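User: What would this chain look like folded?
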Amino acid sequence: MRTSFLITAVVPLLFALGCKPDETGTSGTDGTDETDDTNNPAYGDCHPLLAEYLIAQGKDPLDSADNSLCFTLNVNEPCTRRGGREGTRVFRFMDDGRVTADGKFTGTEYWFWFEGDPDNWDQDVVDTLTYEGAASERFTGSQLTCSQCEEIYEVTRTVVENNSGTPYATDVVFALDNLNPNGGFQDDTKRNMFVFYGRYNRQGEINDLDTDYAKGQYTPDSMVPGTLPASYTWFPQGGEGKCY
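Assistant: Here's the prediction, encoded as structure tokens.
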């Protein structure tokens, strides 16, 4: 069973765990109205972790124009792993990925862990991971089943906050497919990007390959496709998440 927590993340995100309010806006057993308590904000039907994520981005989790994320991710049902075992849904976000002109990669990623129990939201947690690395000189797109990927980065993962108790691997590789076959953006408006993931060992062998790790956006500073420096964001593909 995962424990509740209060998590503070460096720019650009600040996460604070609230508890799920009831219909009257109270969350304590003594009937005290705690709607205005920043530790127990009233987010309606939006999960507190997702609500605080939206707030950190300057959005209103109670505004239908801003809160689609609250209703597109399946956070209230457990998932089923291979073999029929019940698992935990995981959704991963990166909002501040950055690659310099000389190919240095940095970023902070957030893993949301949802147990799938709508009556016990305070057991859901977020882990904070940072990445630092550079363009790979040994791995190829074909090794990651992504021959079309334009960028591949070997990065070191550092666990900043581990609330789930997950034993994260340290050495990982990201492959990014951010251009169409003609060398232009995947989409001129959204600049879509597809993220492939793997971890590697000392022998350089890639394991745990994930060919639909995330979907995202690639934004070069010059807005010229295929150029660096650039910024990167990514988010889950679909609303079911990964089952761990």
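The chain is about 5% helix and 35% strand. If you want, I can go into more detail on any region.
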